[in-house]
Design goal:
The protein contains 2 helices and 13 strands; from the N terminus they run E-E-E-E-E-E-E-E-E-E-H-E-E-E-H. The chain has a 4-stranded antiparallel β-sheet, with no helix packed on it. It has a 4-stranded antiparallel β-sheet with strand order 7-8-9-10. It has a 3-stranded antiparallel β-sheet with strand order 11-12-13, covered by helices on one side. With 171 residues, it is mainly beta. 6% of the residues lie in helices and 44% in strands.
Length: 171
């Protein structure tokens, strides 16, 4: 809607009414380096807060769903939503961290990864303890982050994890 105000003594003025528009969470797609897989992050939180809870799907290039992980809660207030996500350089792992929709443990950055070889999702926290910061990817498949080391009373202990190695230990 546009209004044009006219007066004999003044220049015409165009008035555009301001209509607030809330940004809605949108599905994001992360293609693997070789473009053979797609990690699809779908917002599934309550209406108006869709991005606070997510579902992560791994799909083939043809769109077939190979695996998925729901991070939603039954009430839309206690789940987790994807914050940062990326593939490792070798395309063997999709790594992502999350925030709690209820604001629980704001110091924690729970981190997960999908293994292409195993076609499974894993919690990095299960291998190294509570992750306390965002991550970066180094080299082919190394995740650099910090963890809470309770024994050393260090809330930001730097760690580098070769994602291929935890997989070998868990077998």
């Amino acid at each position: 809607m546009i209004f044009l105000l006219m007066s004999q003594n003044f220049l015409p003025v165009v008035v555009l009414p301001v209509i607030p528009h809330l940004a809605e969470a949108q599905t994001t797609i992360h293609s693997s380096p070789d473009n053979s897989l797609r990690a699809v992050i779908i917002p599934v939180g309550k209406k108006g807060n869709e991005g606070t809870e997510s579902r992560v799907e791994i799909r083939s290039a043809t769109g077939e769903t190979l695996g998925w992980k729901s991070l939603a809660s039954y009430d839309g207030e206690h789940g987790i939503g994807v914050n940062h996500a990326e593939w490792t350089a070798d395309g063997q792992f999709f790594v992502f961290n999350v925030d709690s929709s209820g604001g629980h443990q704001p110091w924690r950055r729970a981190t997960y990864f999908y293994s292409r070889g195993e076609n499974r999702f894993y919690s990095l926290d299960d291998y190294i303890g509570p992750v306390t910061s965002d991550f970066t990817i180094e080299g082919r498949n190394v995740v650099k982050t910090t963890r809470f080391n309770f024994e050393a009373k260090n809330e930001k202990e730097l760690v580098r994890v070769n994602l291929g190695r935890p997989m070998a230990r868990k077998q």
